[in-house]
Design goal:
globular, 17 strands, alpha+beta, eight-stranded mixed β-barrel
Length: about 375
């Protein structure tokens, strides 16, 4: 066995194991292989590993101090596949991004500068600058807080995240197809790349109200298959894949959109993650939705009220209302959202030597005992 240092953290509505880059450098073994073995994949329960057996709890964060003049930390995100035995590096996780600031402060990579400390993060998946505002009252590193966000039952340390100049970070354009509205399988969609590439689908166009619960969506395999087909065909139009069957599992994301609840929200959103309904909202997806909602000609512009505030956006999700804001940071557009973070455990993860054998190669317990 080889011990791998790691920290388990909650960021927003996700949980992720945080590794420093060097910790996953195992001679003779690739990072993908190491992560899959540590997480217990492929296995729908991830029984023989530390994965959480859901898309929001089978995530990895790789960190190191940055040599870039505009960043303090380099951050790489990995979505560790549960049953398919693959690691997806094509996107960022906005919820997990929230842990980077508290981790860097605790490790001493960034020194507190007052009651609030900015931690500049370079996400390597998307070449995105994210500025995290972390509470450091009295210039002291803090690990607890009293901020509550939708989808998390307990308070945590508040982290305000600003995605700076987020448009086109993956595809090179805010509107990758060159249009604000396209049509796929008879359904009008908006293809937008900001924070993450997203295929936005009006819920009504696929026979939904937009108010469906996570369990209702997940219980409809025909619906999930159709939405994934739309998502994959959207990937081709966005230049992310040469053919639908070559689209990555995590990129682009797909969001179902409907009108908001009067007096409560501007939009109602149901987002899919790794082929299933997201229990809340992918933060990177919320960045794309925020920019698309303010642009005429998108499917979202037809759903929000004409007199709504174009700086702030309130989105109803299965977990509650998620709010975003648009601001100017040194002449560049930035989209901000509040998340919370908490350190859950510091651990040594035991990595077995060598790759796991297939079922056919494994002796049964009785045979092993007889031997």
């Amino acid at each position: 066995m080889r011990d791998i240092h790691a920290t388990l953290m909650r960021g927003g509505t996700s949980k992720c194991w945080v590794f420093e880059h060097d910790a996953l450098a195992v001679p003779g073994r690739g990072v993908d292989e190491v992560l899959l073995r540590l997480y217990g994949s492929p296995d729908p329960r991830q029984l023989d590993g530390v994965g959480g057996a859901t898309s929001t709890t089978s995530k990895a964060v790789l960190l190191s101090p940055s040599a870039r003049p505009d960043a303090d930390v380099d951050y790489t995100f990995a979505q560790v596949g549960i049953s398919d035995g693959r690691v997806d590096w094509t996107s960022n996780c906005g919820n997990c991004s929230a842990v980077v600031g508290p981790y860097a402060l605790r490790r001493g990579w960034v020194a507190p500068t007052g009651d609030v400390t900015e931690v500049r993060v370079h996400n390597t998946n998307t070449d995105q600058l994210i500025v995290l505002e972390v509470a450091t009252p009295g210039g002291e590193v803090q690990e607890e807080g009293d901020v509550v966000i939708p989808g998390v039952a307990t308070p945590g340390l508040g982290v305000r995240m600003w995605f700076v100049d987020p448009g086109g970070r993956t595809t090179g354009a805010l509107w990758p197809s060159g249009r604000r509205t396209d049509e796929i399988d008879g359904v009008p969609v908006t293809l937008v790349d900001a924070g993450a590439p997203v295929v936005v689908v009006p819920a009504g166009a696929v026979g939904l109200t937009g108010q469906e619960s996570v369990s209702e969506i997940d219980a409809d395999p025909a619906l999930l298959a159709r939405l994934d087909d739309i998502r994959r065909r959207g990937a081709v139009l966005m230049g992310l894949a040469a053919a639908p069957d070559q689209a990555a599992r995590a990129t682009p994301k797909l969001a179902l959109a409907a009108a908001g609840v009067p007096g409560r929200s501007d939009l109602t959103i149901r987002m899919l993650s790794m082929g299933r309904a997201h229990p809340a909202l992918a933060v990177t997806g919320s960045i794309a939705l925020t920019l698309a909602a303010r642009e005429p000609g998108t499917v979202l512009a037809d759903l929000v009220s004409g007199d709504r505030d174009t700086v702030n956006l309130d989105m109803d999700t299965p977990a509650g209302v998620v709010s975003t804001a648009i601001a100017d940071r040194e002449g560049r557009t930035a989209v901000g959202v509040w998340r919370t973070a908490r350190r859950l455990a510091d651990a040594l993860l035991a990595l077995p030597e060598g790759a796991p054998r297939t079922h056919a190669e494994r002796p049964t317990a009785g045979a092993a005992h007889a031997a």
